[in-house]
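tokens incoming
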């Protein structure tokens, strides 16, 4: 007679029966249904939910706590770019360091629900945007005043539009790029939320072509065309259109890359200018002044700007986005946002020598009609 185990009561030497307890991967069968009865929808849903919980418990948890690791995303930098290999906007586009510093603060819509929180958010965004706006045009020389109608030709992301709006003007920002116009509109909305738009001032964005401006003659008191003409093959027509829509007695400012810094960039890299929408010519100041005079404008003065930006473009053309180029770019963004006295003085001293841009100030003379005796 076989002996029995005193602990289990089973016959000694008999194999232990296999356990019916499921392993963790078999958690789907934890609640088996009795034979002969169909599983209800609620029971199936409960079983699937328990299965999913068991599956997640076996996975390493990500940052979101769901068991699924979060995908890596590039954090926005202070200059508004993303990722390790982000480039400034185009080789031959505007000097992006002039617009980059405030872009993170300006992009996107204000998401706060209450008017008070929207206003606070707008103030923060606009404070950062204002600190990061670098102007090529001297608005005191252009004499922009409240109530004036101002046209910003080829506005880009709107850095010159904002200053005219702050001064109380009615601004029209025109560009071919829908994306840039949307950015300009969002910045202007942030300014309004922050209470920095004077009563009566306004800003309008319009998509249009500089060769056929959609405005009547003598429509504007002031016109700005900053870093635009070097992109246009038929610059004579563009200058003629600018002159047409400027009222008699009105003032204009036209800026282009200066000959020497631009010549160095062209010598160092074909990619700097040989691309769609790139620079098609290098202006000498007297050459551009002559074309503006031929269109009926009077040159009243000139100025130079952004000397510290010239070495950045020389580095970019010579060695690309190497570490030294990126470090210099970070310095420029810091300079734009913080405006330290040392770099301000240094740039003012270097502007006559290597200023990246030249600004020409103009007036459209009033026509006097003589009265016969």
């Amino acid at each position: 007679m076989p002996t029995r185990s005193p602990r289990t009561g089973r016959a000694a030497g008999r194999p232990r029966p296999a356990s019916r307890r499921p392993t963790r991967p078999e958690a789907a069968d934890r609640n088996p249904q009795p034979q002969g009865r169909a599983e209800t929808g609620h029971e199936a849903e409960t079983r699937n939910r328990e299965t999913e919980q068991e599956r997640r418990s076996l996975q390493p948890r990500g940052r979101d706590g769901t068991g699924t690791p979060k995908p890596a995303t590039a954090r926005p930098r202070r200059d508004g770019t993303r990722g390790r290999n982000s480039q400034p906007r185009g080789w031959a586009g505007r000097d992006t360091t002039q617009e980059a510093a405030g872009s993170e603060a300006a992009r996107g819509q204000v998401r706060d629900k209450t008017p008070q929180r929207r206003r606070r958010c707008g103030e923060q965004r606009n404070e950062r945007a204002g600190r990061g706006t670098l102007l090529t045009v001297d608005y005191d020389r252009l004499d922009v005043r409240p109530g004036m109608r101002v046209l910003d030709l080829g506005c880009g992301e709107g850095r010159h539009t904002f200053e005219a709006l702050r001064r109380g003007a009615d601004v029209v920002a025109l560009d071919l790029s829908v994306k840039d116009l949307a950015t300009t509109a969002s910045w202007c909305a942030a300014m309004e939320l922050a209470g920095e738009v004077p009563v009566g001032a306004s800003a309008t964005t319009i998509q249009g072509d500089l060769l056929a401006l959609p405005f009547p003659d003598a429509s504007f008191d002031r016109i700005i065309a900053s870093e635009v003409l070097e992109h246009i093959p038929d610059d004579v027509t563009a200058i003629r259109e600018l002159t047409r829509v400027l009222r008699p007695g009105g003032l204009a400012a036209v800026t282009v890359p200066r000959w020497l810094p631009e010549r160095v960039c062209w010598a160092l890299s074909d990619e700097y200018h040989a691309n769609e929408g790139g620079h098609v010519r290098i202006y000498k100041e007297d050459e551009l002044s002559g074309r503006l005079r031929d269109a009926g404008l009077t040159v009243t003065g000139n100025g130079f700007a952004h000397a510290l930006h010239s070495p950045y473009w020389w580095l970019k053309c010579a060695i690309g986005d190497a570490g030294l180029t990126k470090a210099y770019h970070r310095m420029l963004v810091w300079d734009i946002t913080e405006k330290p006295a040392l770099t301000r003085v240094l740039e003012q001293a270097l502007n006559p020598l290597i200023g990246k841009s030249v600004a020409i100030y103009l007036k459209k003379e009033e026509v006097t009609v003589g009265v016969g005796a």
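note: The beta strands are 149-153, 170-175, 202-207, 220-226, 246-257, 298-305, 357-363.
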